[in-house]
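User: I'm new to structure prediction. If I give you an amino acid sequence, what do you actually give back? Let's try with this one:
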Amino acid sequence: MKKILSLLMMSVMALSIAACGQKTETPGTETPGTETPGVETPSGTEDEEEEKRTLKVAGLDGGYGTEHWKAVAEKFEDNNPGVTVELTLEKNIEDVLRPQIQAMNVPDIMYVSVGREGMMTETLIKEKAVMDITDLLSMEVPGEGVTVGE
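Assistant: Good question. You get back a string of structure tokens that encode the predicted 3D arrangement of the chain. For your 150 residues, that looks like this:
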């Protein structure tokens, strides 16, 4: 079960990163001939800074505890250079998330159980404020020969 949860979370994180804003270039903004042949751009340029991203993940500190979450985040960062996973893990995660949601400062990924006292998950589903990721269950786990749903 832990392996399936890990794979599911990694898939969700990967899709979230892919869905993060892409660099868009405005056509016609480059001036031809401005590059100097043989001169390399120094390290630490603006392009490199744009590659660094933070994935905000909020989750319930429950059944598997925080060590499991930290291991998944670390593995994800190892597999995705330039991405930092910022974890918010609380037993009262609804109380932490509610003000963030109201302030429109929503994490990229939220893991909150259904049937909890605050009814946050049910409310978000009812208001269509969450993305349906059911199709992830049919994705094949790389190197495992099984789908995420299996």
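You can read the tokens as a compact description of the fold. Here is one thing that stands out. The domain at 2-16+53-138 is CATH 3.40.190.10 (D-Maltodextrin-Binding Protein; domain 2).
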